[in-house]
Amino acid sequence: MRKQFYSLASLLLFISGISLAQEEETVGVSPWGPDDQIGTLNMMTEASRLKVLSAITSGKTYDLSVEYFVGMPSFHALGDPSYQFWMTHTPHGTVIDNPNGLGKPMNQKVSYTGDAISMYTHMGTHIDALNHFGLNGKIWNGFTPEEYLGDKGWKKTGAETIPSIIARGVLIDVASAKGGQLPENYRISAEDLKQALQLQNTQLQAGDVVLIRTGQARYYDNAEDYLDQYPGISLSAAKWLVEEQQIMLLGADNLSFEAFPPEKEDNWVPVHTYLLAQRGVMFIEQMNLEELAADKIYQFAFIASSLKLRGASAAPMRPIAIPVK
After folding, report:
1. pTM of the predicted structure, to 2 decimals
2. pLDDT tier, 226 (very low <50, low <70, confident <90, very high otherwise)
3. Which of 40, 159, 195, 238 lies 20 to 30 Å from 84 when distance is taken between CA atoms?
């Protein structure tokens, strides 16, 4: 059973001790022990959950997820499968096929509809597990594919290990702070985040869930526009959030959290690699933050659970936000 608390010493190790490993371009070693599979989600405690739930001031909820539909955005260019939906049973078909063996009179009286889906785990609103990106042959906490990756997925850090999340959430509405529209492929900087927080009169706290609005969700129903040169967070901004603000979990409304195509610099690693492999910080992609931003709700109780897909590198998630005082 994992511990439901973290000490100041372990947190300081997380913030500073891993820096040496990063300089050596290796994955992060968890301050929560050699068996840790959930990284910074260890920052949640029963007390922290109760604190944010006790601050709820309204029964209004905000659904932060997108819909799944045939033709929805995905990385088809990388060979990822598209979302597929098909009927397995229809009311008229069950009359003809009589699959339940009850005969046509009963099937004509009681309609029966069934359906199935096929999808890539990194589609729609989903959370990336810590095995999604690695560095130099290892993933978070030094786990290796040679020892822990089987034909049916990872034996460590699979999506089934991700706990239900209840924490203080903060929206950083970068799109509004920058005039409502970000340029194509814009890299959101730490200064952009600070500017938006100042305009919102919002402060971050250690252990927060931080959601970044780029405005890209406005184009979600049109895959071509949604995928085209979209903006996202820069590596330096991610480092500011994690190393200086001690954020527990991140999220955004674009396809891959960071901008795409990604930035390329000397000694560069993708934001995905930095967060997942080096810092043990998971993040949620393809969120819908439009209603939250329209109502100027910047602080809220963030509540979410993902599907327990054993061994998977991601899982669909349906987060909700409830305003707090």
Report:
1. 0.90
2. very high
3. 159
